[in-house]
User: What shape does this take?
Amino acid sequence: MAEVLVYVDHVDGAVRKPTLELLTLARRVGEPVALAVGNGAADTAAALAEHGAVKVLTHDASEYGEYLVVPKVDALQAAYEAVSPAAVLVPSSAEGKEIAARLALRIGSGVITDAIDLEAGDEGPVATQSVFAASFTTKSRVIKGTPVITVKPNSAAVEAAPAAGAVEALSVSFSEKATGTKITGRTARESTGRPELTEAAIVVSGGRGVNGAENFSVIEALADSLGAAVGASRAAVDAGWYPHTNQVGQTGKSVSPQLYIANGISGAIQHRAGMQTSKTIVAVNKDAEAPIFDLVDYGVVGDLFDVVPQLTEEIKTRKG
Amino acid sequence: MSLRIVVTVKYVPDATGDRHFADDLTVDRDDVDGLLSELDEYAVEQALQIAENADDAEVTVLTIGPEDAKDALRKALSMGADKAIHVEDDDLHGTDAIGTSLVLAKAIEKAGYDVVISGMASTDGTMGVVPALVAERLGVPQVTLLSEVSIEDGTVKGRRDGDAASEQLEASLPAVVSVTDQSGEARYPSFKGIMAAKKKPVESWDLSDLDIEAEEVGLEGAFTKVEAAAERPARTAGTIVKDEGEGGKQLAEFLASQKFI
Ligand SMILES: Cc1cc2nc3c(=O)[nH]c(=O)nc-3n(C[C@H](O)[C@H](O)[C@H](O)COP(=O)(O)OP(=O)(O)OC[C@H]3O[C@@H](n4cnc5c(N)ncnc54)[C@H](O)[C@@H]3O)c2cc1C
Ligand SMILES: Cc1cc2nc3c(=O)[nH]c(=O)nc-3n(C[C@H](O)[C@H](O)[C@H](O)COP(=O)(O)OP(=O)(O)OC[C@H]3O[C@@H](n4cnc5c(N)ncnc54)[C@H](O)[C@@H]3O)c2cc1C
Assistant: This one.
């Protein structure tokens, strides 16, 4: 069976969920060979093997932490040359897309970004994309070279599928341009203890209707009662009420959880672009005419300061 | 010495219009008004600020697109850019990301540059890959997705806010930069700016000016192919209730019925 190269997104050896999803999709088109680079690369092997990686290529060097993107492209290219895969899959993070595109250019291939599904086809993998703010679904293929495809989080269920996961050290020689962009400082984000926005099964978001940073505690309380991540509209972020890293939408994160609860959000096209593929959508908004109600499975027309705390209480009661 | 800034700007169908595909599965540009991709306004803004802080700088805006794409260039010129380049050729119809980066890289080299500034993503394809591809082609550093940027003494510095961390980046010119919508509000063209834009030069180049063969771009040269496009079925109308004191409880009941509680 043909091999499929999967680029691993991990933090110090802890594999992030989108990569495990990618392994599930990879198994539909071939045998996954994973590439993990940087600090803790070898520590990823157990999780990757558990989810279907027949082989795990690893490489660590200080360059991955000191310079932007290009060292990772060099590593992926080295892995590509070592494996000659039928396809290359990369998680659709901002960095993942840049790495994938540069690899595609180097190896004379096309690139498809933000796939939400992947199937084997007669002429190679077929990617599904959700485009124009999720109003259209397309099926696309790379028709020249080896398909390089980036896949969005929550595109597949994580499935355990134990495989050999033999660890092999990859040899990588960095290109002359690898050290072009220096990372001179790094401030790690403080953990809130809540699930990662793009990976969460439930997302509770607040918009301009929340009307102040301090009021976001109402949104957080609901999120915590459900074990959910907290999102925000750009209006709330621009007003300084919530960090930009929590913004949902075209220029924020795109989420597709099982449940999305929009509170005090009107549903502008740019916000919809980031949440319209959520499985179940719920909104609380005091304006019955708000466009968000066109999307909902369940909507409450009302003041969020009445509805949301009551909902939170009721959830707590029911959960005991 | 003058700092040559090239800003790449894309002409896109209005996101608030009814966007759809044409029969050949490329974007239908006839039925929806086009405009300068809003996220490229941030690139123009940062270019203008960098130019204002330099001793001597020139801002050139560059687009690849059909005849109407001149509108996007005019908007950028009215914001304050000095001149514009329009790459227009029938053979470009249907060009994908790899092809777009080829044409941009050739045009940027022909124009001459010290720094290229792009938007974080277009508002139609939204791939967010073209700046990285252009950097790869030009063989210069990519300093992308910056929410803060400055250029001094031949060095570009900026801040990139990622998922796990916020990073400070630094590279020597020449370089390719892209900026996010967190980089600072874009200015509105003034009446004076709009009048002045009418007199600013717009050069038109075609593929032969860039030594690119027709087969390298367009649908023919594309590395990717859209095989099907379907409009997402309208969501079935949901239940909407008015809160009369029990809205939160009713919503909890719904969530329980869907097994979320
Ligand atoms: C290029 C570009 C990119 C963009 N990217 C994004 C993006 O990534 N994400 C994003 O969100 N936006 C984005 N936007 C902005 C977008 O167009 C909207 O401006 C934004 O989404 C509006 O946020 P909102 O719904 O919170 O605010 P509003 O549109 O002002 O809506 C507030 C809503 O709250 C309701 N409300 C007020 N008080 C209460 C109350 N007490 N109880 C209940 N309801 C109440 C109101 O009825 C109203 O519907 C982008 C815009 C552009 C041009
Ligand atoms: C819905 C949709 C999905 C697509 N999917 C794919 C795909 O999976 N693979 C693929 O190869 N192509 C795809 N394309 C085609 C691709 O979008 C175009 O080739 C495009 O020009 C490059 O990608 P982008 O618009 O996403 O730009 P991005 O990479 O999002 O653009 C970033 C920046 O690059 C600059 N830029 C981009 N295009 C131009 C231009 N024409 N002129 C000047 N500056 C520009 C701008 O500064 C822009 O802000 C898709 C197009 C559409 C409409």
User: Anything to note?
Assistant: The mean pLDDT of chain A is 97.
